[in-house]
Amino acid sequence: MRSLYLALIALLFSLPAYALAPVQEVVSKDGIKAWLIEDHTNPIVALKFAFRGGSALDPVGKEGLARLASATMDEGSGDMDSQAFQAKLEDLSISLHFEAGMDSFGGSVTTLRENLKPATQMLRTALSTPRFDKEPVERISAQLLASLRQSEEDPNSVAARTLYKSIFGDHPYGRGSKGTIKGIQNITQQDLKNFAKTRLGKDNLVVGVSGDITSDELKNLLDDVFGPLPDKASPWKIAKAQPVFFKDLKVIDKPVPQSSILFAQKGIDRHDPDFYPAYVLNYILGGGGFSSRLTEEVREKRGLVYSVYSYLVNYDQANLWLAGAGTQNARVKETLDVIRHEWKKAATEGVSAQEVQDAKTYLTGSFALRFNSSDTIAAILVGMQKDKLPIDFLETRNKQVEAVSLEDVNRVAKSLLQPQNLSAIVVGQPEGL
Amino acid sequence: MRILIVLSLLLLPLKAQAAVFNPQSFTLDNGMQVVLIPNTRVPVVKHMVWYKVGSADEQAGKSGIAHFFEHLMFKGTDKLKPGDFSKIVAKNGGQDNAFTSYDYTAFFQTVAKDRLGLVMDMEANRMKHLILTKEVIEPERQVILEERRQRTENDPGAQLREQIDTSQYMNHPYRIPVIGWAHEIATLSLEDLTTFYDNWYRPNNAVLVVEGDITMAELRPLAEKYYGPIPRGPKLTRIRPTEPPAQADRRVIKKDERVRQASLQRTYLAPSYGYDQGDARAPYALQVLENILSSGATSRLYKSLVIDQKLAISAGFSYSPNRLDISEATFWASPRPGVSIDTIEQALLKEIHLLLEKGVAQDEIKRAQKSLVNDAVFARDHLGTGAQVLGSSLAINMTIDEVEDWPNKIKAVTKSDIDRAINEVFKDKYTVTGILLGENEKS
Lengths: 433, 443
Known about the structure:
Chain A has helices at 2-11, 65-72, 82-91, 116-128, 134-151, 155-168, 181-186, 189-199, 215-226, 275-287, 293-301, 332-349, 353-365, 374-386, 393-402, 406-416, and strands at 24-27, 33-38, 44-52, 95-100, 104-112, 205-211, 249-253, 258-266, 308-315, 318-328, 423-428. By secondary structure, chain A is an alpha+beta fold. In chain A, strand 4 (95-100) and strand 5 (104-112) form a beta hairpin. The longest helix of chain A is centred in the first third of the chain and has 18 residues, at 134-151. The radius of gyration of chain A is 23 Å and the shape is globular. The two termini of chain A are 46 Å apart. Chain B is of the alpha+beta class. Chain B folds into 2 domains: 20-226, 2-Layer Sandwich (Cytochrome Bc1 Complex, Chain A, domain 1), CATH 3.30.830.10; 250-438, Cytochrome Bc1 Complex, Chain A, domain 1 (2-Layer Sandwich). Chain B is built from 17 helices and 11 strands. Chain B has helices at 2-11, 65-72, 84-91, 116-128, 134-153, 156-168, 182-185, 190-200, 216-226, 282-294, 300-308, 341-358, 362-380, 385-394, 400-404, 406-411, 415-426; strands spanning 24-27, 33-38, 44-51, 95-100, 105-112, 206-212, 250-256, 263-270, 312-319, 327-335, 432-438. In chain B, strand 4 (95-100) and strand 5 form a beta hairpin. The longest helix of chain B has 20 residues, at 134-153. Chains A and B meet through helix 1, helix 3, helix 5, helix 11 and strand 10 of A and helix 3, strand 5, helix 4, helix 5 and helix 11 of B.
């Protein structure tokens, strides 16, 4: 019967028909662009946007500025104070949030269609006339500080922070994207106001929309929401990062029964011709859950971990390949050895034709699964623009995965995997290292 | 057979008015209920099988067996090698997983519509033909102990919650964590696990839920083909010990060097959908109350403790109606730096007393009802939410009509319903206070 299932797979190799409406580019009267997938199934509209430039631009000594701004921009604007603003959101079931990433400052509004107008107005005023009143800023700062303090005891957070500091050094990426206790404490109301005034320019903006809205309605909405913003953000530049990978193992002592393990090596640019071969390779090595080599070797065969994984990370100015695992302190050495061994094995022996085939059927077949709500569709449209992908990406993406050959994957495995230069951090109380 | 399908389609629109997910349903001859939730955005389906067995059904001394067994369902059958299940799903562009709770265990795959038959075939196969051996059990036991370390032992807050439940429930098995106690996980035997499988994994103890771009005319023959032939098992009863009245307040204090932010919670036993103590409106009244107390920056507890009094960095109230037996409701707050845990406790108690004295206001109720009813519209927008809601409700013996009637039941809640629930749950009750502190902090 097992062979019967396999026969079915061969027969059903064709892809599921792509059923969403095509992506439209909508340009407003004032020239603001958005990508839209109309979907009138539910009376819901989801709008997401991002301004290029994120927490990597936080001034030295004010680490956390973008994060604090993201957490306080929905705390009052125009003539509405924090309580008035939040009460209106709640009363109209509008969800409006901002978020700060390493390379961008973004936000989203999700609303019932019937409340689209007030939702638009609220986003407009939050972006163009945020108040940053003393009370909410002080309150939200206290929350961020509490979470930063607690994260100093969280082994996964400690591992990530230590790793970024080690490999990026003085580059802004070395500070991570969550801010620091000192940085947050140094931020003033004026800093937040300057942030809103200088960083949110139309020249840095990408917008993605999905749901119960037409392109004509969206055109007007774009001018309503983003019209008052300056044409250009203050000029900024983040230097290309030159991550330096270390060969020794760094151990950070924390009193936990399970150590957190994090590996890093160089990654690959999103626009590199070898990106998709690397993407397929990562799936085979550690990205593919129960289909991955790391899960098979580390979890299934040896019972060393509950989760082990690898993934490619793309920042605007750096690319990483990360892998992580968590195991009891007594078995850290064995876990490190098995992961390093798999890394080396993939680099020297490559992978099999069957593995590449299986990776491709997963990666192409599962693509449609991502489009599971208005929110996620809008987020995908923003992500595509942030990554500078073409508007027909949703139709061409699977072809690019299909085109990856075994030779491509093995060539990339040989050239990109760095078993000799795989940096590792362990946070916990590992034994026998 | 075709006639029956036509009939059920004709009947549907009649009861679909203020409904949430518009499901359709029938029951196979072997007792397995089948539910379809339409969602046509992309040609994808979420396929779930829910078993009416969870950690609270475990035999004494065998804690963790429901969850352990969930992991073992991914091992081999008479047709599949260990681990092949998930690999085949992935090769077909699908994703799969499973989870265990107190009252149910669920397995699911999200796949392109044309692969539904394939995953149904495999899911039906492992309901009956799983092959367990020592070789597959032992590494998985280690995996589960690592899962416990990761979720619980690495996190002092999670450790405290485990301890609170052992105090909250004196007799009912909700006192035991779903994942089980490590020392008992270590001793579960092949025989224990096989017996558990034989007892509970039966079609008459399972609910099939499929959400996605599919019609009943398409789903029904597939369900009959794959699940229909599995023989019905014996009738199952879930025997659960019940709670005696508490006779003393309990305080559970955890001091840990890993804690950098103190917190306090006060928990009460509360009615649930499955255990409403004769007041069927109470679970809905408590959901409205939860929204009033704890949804966002303008809700009562946040406004009072965080904004106005500036004592807490966060505060709230949580309640879950989705239990077969008596549930819990929890007030919680985390003090700002410099505010003692005693101060925060007094402030929280004052809020509870205020609630008992004055109840909630009519406009608070209206506002909460509107917000909750709107949530149902958003719930429809996400593929998978309907399957989750229907499955978790049917697994605790609710009916589809009850689930679909949720917005109406929320809208029907009155001030006196809420007052009654408040008194029933919080008035003169001995209860549990859990406190999380840094190593050198004063309790």
